[in-house]
Structures are given as structure tokens and as C-alpha cells.
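Hey team,

Filing this mostly as a record. A colleague (T.K.) asked me to run one chain through the structure pipeline before their review meeting, and I want the input and output archived in the tracker in case anyone asks later how it was produced. No errors, nothing strange. Just documentation.

Input sequence:
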Amino acid sequence: MINGVNMQVNIDKYIINALREDITSEDVTTNAVMPESKRGVAELICKQDGVVCGLDVFKRTFELIDDTAEFRTELKDGDEVKKGQLMGIIEGDIKAILSGERTALNYLQRMCGIATFTRELSKELEGSKTKLLDTRKTTPNMRPFEKYAVKVGGGYNHRYNLSDGVLIKDNHIGAAGSVKKAVEMAREYAPFVRKIEVEVENIDMLMEALEVKADIVMLDNMDNDTMKKAVDIVAGRAETECSGNVTKERLKEISKIGVDYVSCGALTHSAPIMDISLKNLRVL
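Output structure:
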């Protein structure tokens, strides 16, 4: 399951499209070396330390090609693994194992990488009230997998998409004419249950956002001194989010300033994959 929803309904379409991308008509190499179906197994081996994420997606990829496929593992998403560790065993039609290997690993490596990177950054905020958020800077058609991986790694999800919340950014302000006008228009249009967040780049914009009672202010690309001044001015009248130029090295200092949230696009757009291999394939 991902985000508590039925995976076959919500996730299968993404995996099927990925498989179609890799197999347009046939797997020529597999059909050449394995003309007949035979049952076999292969070992999933971790080649570096990290956090596990995406085991159900890995398993489901093979099930969509071979409904007899079985994936056996003692791990669960969120567990930490070490280099050289056996993560699990996939059993099924060898043709399916060979054809699905790359797609299944692409998902698993990407999701493990994001979860690992998120946990690394989350540790910098331990002991503080500041929560680490992801963004919409995700790989096209990978958002549900990548945002799930952030949660597994210990982070939190910002809005899922443009339909999920009101976030007034610089270009929205430019289109509306001012912070005040943009907030007033959003409050008039959006359901009353929706919070309104406004991106501000300086103290003047912050004051305007507070004047019209924005629910959340995003302190965008501010240096630490300006951010501290902004948080002091807000004084609990709105929630605060730090965004822009967020690095691992800055996180401890940002948390000391006292912002409620810090959003980091790097969690999804810059996390390196985790090195994992499917090895030791054999016929049963």
C-alpha cells in the first residue's frame, strides 16, 4: 500500500506505463535465450547502506507480468539495510523476472534513495519543532512514489498537487497586483476550509500578508538574520515555512530560528538512487 490507498487501483497504471516504456513489443534478448517458460529465483541484494522503500512496488511490477510471481522478504519499508545484505528473493517465470528486472529496480532504487536522503536530512531537525516538507519538484509520473518515499524517510508531504491547497507565489501576486489582492481573491474563491499560504520575499511583503491574515507565510530565499526577524514579527499569528536554498548544512540553524516547516525540493529532485542489484538468477 502507498499512502493507505489500494495499490492495484491507483498505482498499477503508473507501473504498466513504465513497463510499456521498456517493452514496446517484446523483450528480444529474453525471448532469444529463454524460448520456453521455466520457473526460477533471483536474489535482491543491497550494495550500499540505506533505508528500504518501495518493496510493494517492486513486487507488484513482477506480478503484473506474471501472476504466479512471489516476493519473499523479512524487511518492511522504513527498515535500514547494510551493504551486501540480502533484501529478498523473487520467484516466478524466469522470462518475467528478466523482463521486469529493470523497471522494478528503477522504482526500488529511486524510492530507497529518496527515503535514505530524507532520513539523513530529518536527523538534522531532531529535537526541534521544525518539520521537513517535500515539494512538487518531482519526476513526472513518479509523484505518488516519491512523496511516499519522503514519508518513509521521516519527512512530511506538502500539498500533493495544484488541486490540493492554496499557495500564492510570486507570479500569482504579480497576476493579482498585490499580496493583499491575491489573498482576498483566494479567500473569496477557495472553500473556507482551505488554508491560504503566501510566499513572501521580504519584510514588507510579510507585513502585507499578515495584514490580510494569511494562514501560512512562506519565507522564501531569506538569509538567517532576515528569517529570524520575520519569525519574530509573525509571533504566532501565522504558521511559518522556510523555502529556497535549503541545504543539509543550513537545517540546524533554520530549526533554531523557530520556523514551523522547512520545504526542500532536493528531497525528490536531487536524491541519489540507492545501489541495489538482482543477482544469482537460477532455474528451479
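Quick notes for T.K.: DSSP finds twelve helices and twelve strands in the chain. Residues 36 and 185 are 64 Å apart (CA to CA).
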